[in-house]
Write a structure and sequence with these properties.
It is a single chain. This protein has 77 residues and is mainly α. The protein is built from 5 helices and no strands. α3 runs antiparallel to α4.
Length: 77
């Protein structure tokens, strides 16, 4: 269901409905979905659908990066 919400958010963002996009991403982001966290971070960075908040954007970017980070050791295994 989270993947569907993230996709619905991307579709809303593409239509320029930033508020709807943020609403779709909020739940999955709160549950740790890295794609939703990244997308929501972009919204906060740009101030689209939410008031611009660079601190919140930075926090969400960091959470998304932590989930998608691949260490060098994993690449060689």
């Amino acid at each position: 269901a989270a993947v569907a919400d993230v996709k619905a958010g991307v579709d809303a963002w593409s239509r320029g409905d930033y508020g709807a996009a943020v609403r779709e991403w909020k739940g999955p982001a709160d549950k740790g979905d890295a794609d939703a966290q990244f997308n929501l971070a972009q919204a906060y960075k740009l101030g689209r659908g939410v008031p611009q908040d660079l601190s919140k954007a930075t926090d969400l970017f960091a959470k998304a990066a932590a989930k998608t980070y691949v260490s060098c050791e994993e690449l060689v295994d």
